[in-house]
Amino acid sequence: MKLIIGLGNPGSEFAKTRHNIGFEVVDAISDTHHFPLDKLKFNAQFGKGKINGEDLVLVKPLTYMNLSGEAVAPLMKFYQIPVEDILVVYDDMDLPLGKIRLREKGSAGGHNGIKSLIQHLGTQEFKRIRIGIGRPNGREPVVDFVLKRFSKEDQPVVERSVEEAQKACEAWLTQPFLQVMNAFNG
Fold first, then answer.
1. What are the pLDDT digits (tens) for 43-88?
2. What is the pTM of this model?
3. Which of 46, 109, 146, 185 satisfies CB 3.0 to 4.6 Å to 59 for a cystine?
4. Catalytic site positions
5. d(CA 9, CA 61)
6. What Cα–Cα distance (Å) separates residue 115 from each residue in 53, 142, 156, 174?
């Protein structure tokens, strides 16, 4: 069984914001494969299903971004999912808008959701898909920038990046992650 975690913040006021792009990828996978995120437990909204013969749990932590690990660690324990079978999808300001980058492990790079996961899982050794959201212009505070919705002009680029991240998640279900990295980072 594998676990795909999309990071974001719960609530309609955060829907479609830059910080919630991980939630958008999980929603896209759920919609495409027709298994609802209909379970609420461990401060998470999640759904369990099967894609290409692989058992999968899709997760959206409801703890708010900075406490994501508080929801993920108990779910992993409950379903007995080892860290090598998790994939985390989240926003990254260090990548240009729409660019996706897959990594097998690494530091938090200043991302508080990833810091929380590292703290609660006790390791940096988990797979990630980072989705570029760009950087704020001028003096706009980072908090304001990440909690803002994408502009109408940016929407097509964002939609393509969500589709690419979804394809990468689905590829990981049947292929070694290194192979998926080579295909999608190329």
1. 999 999 999 899 999 999 999 999 999 999 999 999 999 999 999 9
2. 0.96
3. 46
4. 19
5. 8
6. 32, 17, 30, 28
